[in-house]
Specification:
The complex is a heterodimer of chains A (379) and B (72). Chain A has 379 residues and is mainly alpha-helical. Chain A has one domain (3-376). Chain A is 63% helix and 3% strand. In chain A, strands 1-2 form a two-stranded antiparallel ribbon. A two-stranded antiparallel ribbon of chain A has the order 3-4. In chain A, strand 3 and strand 4 form a beta hairpin. Chain A is globular, with a radius of gyration of 19 Å. Chain B is an alpha+beta fold. Chain B has one domain: 2-Layer Sandwich (Translation Initiation Factor IF3). Chain B is built from two helices and four strands. Chain B has helices at residues 14-24, 39-51, and strands at residues 2-6, 31-36, 55-61, 64-70. Chain B has a four-stranded mixed sheet with strand order 1-2-4-3, covered by helices on one side. The chains are: A mainly alpha (379), B alpha+beta (72). Chains A and B meet through strand 2 and helix 10 of A and helix 1 and helix 2 of B.
């Protein structure tokens, strides 16, 4: 192997990508993103759904540039390395609904797998419960994979298919900046308080998003793939990246706590930022998310990178997640964070509709799992 | 014996799983060809093959990669 090839293999390894995310995500918090939420694919897609008025939860409305950066970065990397290929046809409608339920599960936990790692790196012990739930969901999903689960073959498609998300998300981001707010329903929504108002400067968010997009596309970084591949093909390549993310994010949080006046690390279960300490629902929410992600072939970050490199099926999953966020907030399915009222802690978590939705979601995913694997598979 | 496995258009981790299953059935003089159409799947399948001490060679035509595996 040539020296250049060896160098690019190291540069674009999951370890380096995990390290980049681990350092840059806490820095995004430093620049203004919500605490322990430097990057959260689920939360940020939810904020985008809010910015477009698909839900009216006024505290979570902001057109997050990081998400668009991920897709653009992956798009550019795929073009440069000649991997861009428009493709679709692998059960898009099933993927859409998997996206909806994955988002509901993530919003019951209050975070995607990336944020679960970042929350843990900020001392939020609920993330341990969430990650255990996520692993349980992936284990359940790999059971189907071992029995031949797949959503069918994708085929090469017209270029328009693969260009949809990269182009339209970029246009939407530009519009979200240039269209002034001229009244409710007439322009993009933006939060006046809550997590939606906390954000890093646009160009920093976008630049970091693109950088992460490039590295993640090249390294195939995927938090779900990390657990899945370790379990079923004994391949720990992706897992090394996930562990690096956790360690570097922890180190960066501790360093930022030392160098600035803000707190980036607080070890506890209760009253963590944008989190709840209802153990059962942290676990169950992530079982649903993990199961849906593994059936759809990757974590929400990976689905964005795939969308960038021309995968129309991944793009439909992303749209499903955005629709899921709208449903989650319109029907009151998302969890409420812990809060302190007059000095006493009120533990958050989902209300009854959210609990029912998690149950339905798990039944839905099991149904998809059974009908697309083993002797029940048709077509 | 020569075997052909068509993993085109399938998403992760199916191509890798199919490769592993094919390798398990491979005898000393047997050969298996995996048909692939994505770089990611090619990387994954090659890694699985090399882990299982298989010799690999690839050829490409019309966007389809033929990954040839053989036990030494």
């Amino acid at each position: 192997m040539s020296k250049v090839k060896k160098l690019t293999n190291v540069l674009f390894s999951p370890i380096v990508t995990g390290g980049i995310i681990g350092v840059l995500a806490p820095l995004l918090v430093h620049f203004g993103n919500p605490p322990n939420m430097g990057i959260c694919v689920a939360c940020f897609e939810r904020d985008i759904a809010g910015a477009m008025g698909l839900h009216r939860a006024s505290v979570v409305q902001y057109f997050r540039p990081e998400i668009i950066g991920f897709v653009i970065g992956a798009f550019v990397a795929a073009i440069v390395w000649k991997e861009w290929k428009s493709r679709t046809g692998s059960a898009p409608v099933v993927r859409f609904f998997l996206g909806i339920f994955a988002m509901i599960g993530a919003l019951v936990f209050l975070g995607c797998p990336w944020r679960a790692l970042l929350r843990l790196a900020g001392g939020d012990l609920n993330a341990v419960i969430g990650l255990l739930g996520l692993a349980a969901g992936v284990v359940l999903g790999t059971g189907f994979l071992r029995k031949g689960f797949n959503l069918g073959r994708a085929r090469e498609s017209i270029s328009a298919t693969g260009l949809m998300l990269p182009v339209l998300l970029t246009v939407a981001l530009v519009l979200s900046v240039v269209v002034p707010k001229i009244g409710d329903g007439l322009a993009f929504f933006s939060s006046q308080q809550g997590p939606g108002v906390m954000h890093a400067p646009l160009l920093i968010s976008l630049f970091i998003g693109i950088l992460v997009g490039v590295f993640a596309q090249r390294s195939r970084f995927c938090t779900i793939g990390a657990i899945r591949d370790t379990l079923i093909i004994r391949d720990r390549r992706l897992l090394t990246g996930v562990i690096t993310l956790l360690i570097t994010a922890l180190a960066t949080n501790l360093l930022l706590s030392l160098l600035t006046d803000d707190t980036y690390f607080k070890l506890s279960f209760a009253a963590q930022p944008v989190a709840h300490s209802s153990f059962l629902w942290n676990f169950a929410g992530m079982v649903l998310a993990g199961l849906a992600f593994v059936l759809a072939g990757g974590c929400p970050g990976r689905q964005l990178f795939l969308s960038g490199e021309g995968d129309g099926d991944a793009a439909v999953f992303v749209l499903g997640m955005i629709a899921g966020a709208a449903l989650a907030h319109n029907f009151g399915l998302a969890a409420i964070p812990d809060r302190i009222v007059e000095g006493s802690l009120i533990i958050g978590g989902p209300a009854l509709p959210g609990m029912v939705a998690v149950g339905l979601g798990i039944v839905f995913c099991l149904g998809v799992g059974f009908t697309c694997s083993g002797k029940y598979r048709r077509g | 014996m020569m075997m052909e496995v068509d993993a085109r258009g399938l998403s992760c981790p199916q191509p890798a799983l199919m490769t592993r299953n094919a390798i398990e059935t491979l005898g000393s003089d047997d050969e298996v060809v995996i048909l692939l159409d994505s770089e990611t799947a090619l990387e994954n399948c090659t890694r699985i093959a090399e882990k299982n001490a298989c010799q690999t060679s690839t050829s490409r035509k019309d966007g389809i990669t033929r990954l040839r595996l053989k036990k030494p």
